[in-house]
Amino acid sequence: MVNWIWLFLIVVSVVFAAFNGRMELVTEAAFEGAKTGVTVSFGLISILVFWLGMMRIGEDAGLLRKLAGLLGPLVRFLFPDVPRNHPALGYIMTNMSANILGLGNAATPMGIKAMQELQKLNPDKETATPAMCTLLALNTSSITLVPTTLIAIRMNFESAHPAEIVGTTLIATSIATAAAILADRWYRSRVRPPLVPAIKGTGGPSGSGESGAGTSLLS
Amino acid sequence: MYEVVTLLSVWAIPAMIVFIPLYAAFRKVPVYESFVEGAKGGFDTAIQIIPHLVGMMVAISMFRASGAMEMIVQAMRPFFDWMGIPSEVLPLGVLRPLTGAGSLAFTTELIKTYGPDSMIGRIASTIQGSTDTTLYVLTVYFGAIGIRRTRYALKVGLFSDLVGFVAAIFICLYIFG
């Protein structure tokens, strides 16, 4: 689907640009966009280096495992296929907490680290696992308690009640997250049937079954 | 509640920065060495994201410059008018999943033009605050670990954006209306 959206955006842009006489602007925008991509990635270097270092200390101290062990039934419900006490659950937990508190620059490194941990459990390194899709769904809809940036902007424009949108935002974000979780569950239930028999059907040790499924998907 | 959460947000990071190494030192972890060891991976991860982010940003930036969005919005305007929804917020529904910076700029523009306490200002604030930029999150998270087949992840993200967008509008109309 990403392939199609990407192609769609580019083709539609050029067609509309021709139609609107904006071809030069669109060409310029293409290179401007490339520059933004690099700038944003470079901006990520500092926060990734810092937080990954910090989280390594936590991991070496056994803090993340502990956190994963403390996890409530909610996270086990959301990530049934991740083994208990796996560090991935600890990172998922920190990622979710950072999102809830609106700590964007901490949430991204934790999320990436959680993805890297989930990737270790992935038999086919190029295809997303259901757990990865769930983590992504939680992050795209990201529950935030206080949208600090927006409150600041509303203050700048002299709002009488800058924080009055906290309640509406919380309700909207909860509904969006619930929708994401439901959709994710639905897709999970649809994906599971063809996957499970394929692994069980090989009859051999589960390890070889999984790698077999992986290579058949790749070819 | 707002004050408590804000306080928590302000304290969360410094508390973590102090607590994690302190706890680790207590458990006899060589904290600084651990930090450097883990931090090493950060650079490579960020560099690995570049091709993904450049590809996505090029497409989104072209799309915004082409004027295609304005035409989509124009086409949907009658439906919004018929529903009694201020159509000024409509571009946000398209922009929000695509670009965080772009939709924030658009929200700021709406707040500036119509005032933060207008219905448009409130709806725009709520939409902007209630979801994250799906395409960006997908690009960065999956780019960092080299996932090529994203399966249904994007569909779920976009679906939840749509639900969030509609929910934000109706909640604001109901609460502030």
From TrEMBL, chain A:
Keyword line? Membrane, Transmembrane, Transmembrane helix
Region (Disordered), start-end ranges:
197-219
Designated name of the protein: Spore maturation protein A
Composition bias (Gly residues) maps to 201-212
Q: Please verify whether the record's keywords include Membrane.
A: yes
Transmembrane feature ranges? 33-51, 91-112, 133-153, 165-183
| InterPro entries on file | Gate_dom
Residues annotated as domain Nucleoside transporter/FeoB GTPase Gate:
43-150
Q: Per its UniProt entry, which superkingdom is the organism in?
A: Bacteria
Q: Does the keyword NAD apply?
A: no
Q: Name one Pfam family in it.
A: Gate
From the broadest rank down, the organism's phylogenetic lineage runs: Bacteria, Bacillati, Bacillota, Bacilli, Bacillales
From TrEMBL, chain B:
TM spans (from-to): 7-26, 46-67, 156-176
Q: Which GO terms describe its cellular component?
A: plasma membrane
Alphabetically sorted, this entry's keywords are: Membrane, Transmembrane, Transmembrane helix
Entry keyword Nucleotide-binding: no
Entry annotated with the keyword Transmembrane helix: yes
The Nucleoside transporter/FeoB GTPase Gate domain sits at 47-147
Q: Tell me the superkingdom of the source.
A: Bacteria
This one is known as Spore maturation protein
